[in-house]
Design brief:
GO terms for molecular function: oxidoreductase activity. By secondary structure, this protein is of the alpha/beta class. It contains 16 helices and 7 strands. Helix 1 (2-17) runs antiparallel to helix 2 and helix 5 packs parallel to helix 7 (163-178).
């Protein structure tokens, strides 16, 4: 911080030497100095490397978790990469390409036994500075109207996206608290944006954010920081949204639902969501950078909204808009109008 104090002294002395005509220039220099000092402060106080610290990441078979595990390994962290299938290519590539600090372990977040065994393994292999962070990244996605779904469909989604994160958080929280570390939760824009066909997914992510928000308040006195990652459409980058065939959906309908939902609408919905699978961001870099900031910055954000610049303004104000306005967004969608015409026809 010596350069900061030196620069401050120079500015204070120069103020007494300046005439009135240069006063605006002086204030401009002050503003630039403050911005520079803030950047310098953050650089001096953020983690430069992760040596001696461990991070547990769930859902490392592919997608965000896979890329984050590789990045943190290169930064010197001991990485406990939880994978649903440790023998599969994604998990094996972490072992083959990573250092000896990369630890791949079996972790199905829906199973208490897996979580218990993972904790035992982590505790037995912790580096000197302990468990610094847990990144709750494991998640699944699906789409379908509520009337097409069953209670089990909602339970399956929540068991991974919501209760999976809770199941991992509780046993590992004491270890993170001991190191005054970080807890990260990968949510979605659908936690606050109500969308056709995304009911089960939205329920799980909205519940996840409620859990993370409450935890953040509880952890303040312990020095643990909690952040939420809210990705937009990263369908290509993660391949998380499953592709469905219209006939498979239609075959599951009983006669009553076949009278309500036109088969042509089912085909249109499949085409729309399959298109989403091949659109959006093509790589994970925006999400990985946000995760890194949440992990190593001295003052991480509570939420990281990760959408395109075109969508940024709307999604920032969306949570504060009246419901009648946010609901009316769908009335400008061609799919919404086609759906209305096709129902009961």
């Amino acid at each position: 911080m010596k350069p900061v104090f030196f620069s401050m002294t120079v500015l204070l002395i120069s103020y007494n030497c300046l005439s009135d005509e240069y006063i605006y220039t002086y204030f401009g220099l002050v503003i630039c100095f403050m911005l520079w000092a803030k950047m310098l402060f953050h650089a001096e106080n953020s983690l430069s490397d992760g040596f001696g610290r461990a991070v547990l990441i769930t859902g490392c078979d592919c997608g965000f978790g896979h890329h984050l595990a590789k990045k943190l390994d290169r930064m010197g962290f001991t990485v406990f990469a939880g994978c649903l299938c440790p023998e599969c290519p994604g998990a094996q590539s972490l072992v083959e390409e990573g250092s000896d600090r990369m630890k791949v372990l079996q972790l199905d977040v829906t199973k208490d036994e897996d979580v218990s065994l993972a904790k035992d393994f982590v505790q037995a292999n912790l580096p000197e500075k302990g468990l610094y962070a847990v990144v709750n990244n494991a998640g699944i996605s699906d789409w379908g109207e509520t009337e097409w779904s069953t209670a089990k469909d909602f339970q399956k989604m929540a068991d991974v996206n919501l209760f999976g994160a809770i199941r991992v958080t509780i046993p590992f929280l004491s270890l993170v608290r001991a190191s005054k570390g970080r807890m990260l939760y990968v949510s979605s824009i659908f936690s606050f944006f109500n969308c056709l066909n995304m009911g089960a997914y939205s329920v799980s992510k909205r519940g996840l954010e409620a859990f993370a928000d409450c935890l953040r308040v509880e952890m303040v006195n312990f020095g643990v920081k909690v952040s939420i990652i809210q990705p937009g459409n990263f369908g290509i980058a993660t391949n998380i949204l499953p592709k469905k065939k219209p006939q498979d959906i239609w075959d599951e309908f009983d006669d009553a639902r076949k009278l309500t939902f036109n088969q042509k609408y089912i085909e249109m919905a499949c085409e729309y969501f399959n298109l989403l699978c091949t659109s959006g961001f093509k790589d994970c870099s925006m999400v990985i950078n946000a995760m890194l900031h949440a992990l190593i910055a001295p003052k991480p954000q509570t939420r990281y909204l990760l959408v395109s610049w075109r969508d940024m303004f709307f999604f920032y104000i969306c949570p504060f808009l009246p419901t009648c306005i946010t609901d009316s967004v769908f009335t400008v969608s061609s799919m919404y109008h086609k759906r209305k015409v096709m129902l009961y026809s």
